[in-house]
């Protein structure tokens, strides 16, 4: 079912995180459109540009503006997804997020030496886009989950993050099929849909409290997600 211009306005608006009116975001949006891509194809082009330009690191500030992530050329999975949402809105494609409360043990394999300090629960903003009729989760940006399940599953280890994994394999938070790609067992609660990640974090807060982010983020945000080495 289509939505009217008035109904779509909140899903296209600039926000403190999704600052799509910033020159850096607008420039990336123009690049994504340069080949004539539109709709889903444009989102794939934008995702590939972000994957190539923004290095994956262990940053903690989920409310960092997309333009700042682009300036730094590095970002967490959440921050890189926010850039994709900002570019989408800049190109006139509405976005929203699904809030998921994920068991912190999902990240234990990635942080084997830091397990005692990994939060018990992580607030995850999982984007959805509306390039045509109906909402498209970022999990299905590159194809439907049934097709993507043919690839090796995401393990949350090594260089690959959730942001990168959606281009290669099924990231299935609902347990709709293949057991190897089923991540539903890590989901402790579905927080519902929000007009923006700003709205989600306003209601539920970020995973890591402000004092800890202030103290730790300047260091963690320089460590590559692939090898644990500072950049």
UniProtKB/TrEMBL annotation:
Domain Transglutaminase-like: 58-138
Residue runs in coiled coils: none
Pfam family membership, one: Transglut_core
Signal peptide positions (record): none
Identification of the protein by name: Transglutaminase-like superfamily protein
Species of the source: Nonomuraea wenchangensis
Biological classification of the source: Bacteria, Bacillati, Actinomycetota, Actinomycetes, Streptosporangiales
């Amino acid at each position: 079912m289509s939505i009217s211009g008035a109904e779509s306005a909140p899903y296209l608006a600039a926000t403190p995180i999704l600052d799509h009116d910033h020159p850096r975001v607008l420039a990336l949006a123009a690049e994504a459109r340069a080949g004539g891509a539109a709709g889903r194809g444009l989102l794939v082009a934008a995702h590939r540009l972000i994957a190539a330009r923004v290095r994956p690191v262990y940053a903690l500030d989920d409310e960092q503006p997309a333009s700042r992530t682009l300036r730094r050329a590095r970002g967490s999975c959440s921050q890189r997804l926010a850039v994709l949402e900002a570019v989408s809105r800049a190109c006139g494609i509405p976005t929203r997020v699904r809030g998921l409360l994920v068991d912190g043990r999902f990240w234990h394999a990635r942080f084997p030496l830091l397990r005692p300090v990994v939060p018990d629960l992580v607030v995850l903003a999982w984007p959805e886009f509306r390039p045509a009729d109906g909402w498209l989760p970022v999990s299905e940006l590159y194809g439907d989950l049934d097709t993507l399940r043919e690839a090796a599953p995401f393990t949350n280890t090594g260089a690959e993050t959730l942001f990168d994994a959606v281009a290669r394999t099924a990231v299935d938070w609902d347990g709709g099929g293949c057991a190897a790609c089923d991540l539903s067992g890590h989901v402790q609660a579905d927080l519902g849909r929000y007009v923006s990640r700003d709205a989600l974090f306003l209601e539920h807060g970020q995973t890591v409290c402000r004092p800890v982010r202030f103290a730790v983020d300047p260091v963690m945000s320089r460590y590559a997600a692939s090898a644990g080495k500072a950049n």
